[in-house]
Amino acid sequence: MQPKPRSKKKTSLIEPTRVFIVLLAVAVVFFLPIVAPGDEERGSFAETYPALNPLASSADACPWNCIQCTSWDEDSCPKNCLTYECVDGTTDCAGDDGGGGGPSYSPPTISHVLNCSVSGNGDWCIGALTLDLTAFDPQGQSVIISGDVNGVAFACPSGQTTCSIPLPEGTGTANYKVDSATGLSASGSTTWQLDVTTPQISGNVSGSIGTNNWYITQALISALASDSLSGIFTFEMNADNAGWLPYSDITFNDGIHTIQFRATDNAGNVSETAPQEIKVDATTPSLSLSVNGTRGQNDWYVSSVLVGAITSDATSGIALVEAKVDSDQWTVISDRLPVFTDGVHTYQVKATDNAGNVTETPVLTLMVDTVPPAIAMDVDSLSLGDTLYYDLEDPLSGLWINRAVIEDDDEKYKKLVWVEELTGAKSNNNEIRWDGIFPSTSLGTSSDGTKAAPGVYFITLKISDQAGNETMRTATVEVTAFNSIIPIPAFTP
Fold this sequence. Notes:
The protein is 5% helix and 45% strand. The strands form 10 sheets. Strands 11, 13, 14, 16, 17 and 18 form a 6-stranded mixed β-sheet that branches. Strands 20, 22, 23, 24, 25 and 26 form a 6-stranded mixed β-sheet that branches. The protein contains 3 helices and 36 strands. The chain has 5 domains: 65 residues, no CATH class; 86 residues, Immunoglobulin-like (Sandwich); 73 residues, Immunoglobulin-like (Sandwich); 83 residues, Immunoglobulins (Immunoglobulin-like, Sandwich), CATH 2.60.40; 112 residues, Sandwich (Immunoglobulin-like).
């Protein structure tokens, strides 16, 4: 059986027409703006999807007043939004039922914490202090935290929900604010007190400074504490380790002292000085002299003399002892001066302590004469009626007393004695011519005197100088039967 021949399908003009209509409808839908129906005509479709106009601006693309910005740019629209999302809802921005407006938003919140590393007294911080801010947006939108510290503005990075602002030393007010992408904001403020600077202490010592950091007068101690931020709370002192007491001026007398000061400000910062040593020696050294030698007459010494210096200083101690002899230069000595020999000398002694105090003797005079006077006779023996010539000399202390005696060896006769006071260094051309008569009742001659019998008699001169040194010299006088009858003038000493 032969198959039936396939029948040809007839081409209808309706098919191309349908294709053209469909394409035309697509083109119309794609290229022509669709006008959103009015409120009175909006159906359920219009309430769910906004009408789009591909040729409209970004502001026209979202027909509702409330939109959600996702980033900002000052030249973008709407509301400076660079990018945004259209938000569908049943209420408008004010929360009223608008039948097509966006939803209402809750405002953001912001809180602060004053973060102090070291707490002081009261509300003071004495360590690092920061203002820690935390912001929150209930919708989860981006926020910006900003504010000012005593009028100095700050801004935290955009979108950051926490921020830490270092606070400066001192006191003040910090204002802070959070701005949300929803257009809502919140703000707050707080005050702070920060003092990390310890008090300043300045001291002064009034007195005359000597050597080696010693004061040679009373030392008046004064001090001042200051604090420009929280102010001074207490100011104390510790003198000679007696313990901390409220500050007052103090005067130190002789001795080695210590002083400390301590200041506490109202924030609790403490400044304490190290112990300072104050050395006071306002007393000059003790100085006395010892003079060792044989004293003669009239303040003269008749031997060499040793002068010793006895010094002491109870506070700073003796630094050096000096002497000046016969107007020479000051010379350091140990405890005694050079030996003084014959002559008239001047000397001074000076003691200096370690503080610089000086005790100095006035110029003192020391007279030494160890040499007795000299007697020069022309002869050592003579006959009655002869004249004895003699000279006297003492170049140091000078002549003082001449005591002359005429006597016999057996002391049968009363001595003929006379005394004369001398001055000066020399007495020359002195003479004695004895007449052979001894006094009967008193010194000197007498009309009833006793005539010496033949024999040998002695004329003795005893000369003293001003220092008390003595020299004696004797000459003999021979009396014979012949010369005793020779007329001789009466002897007057």
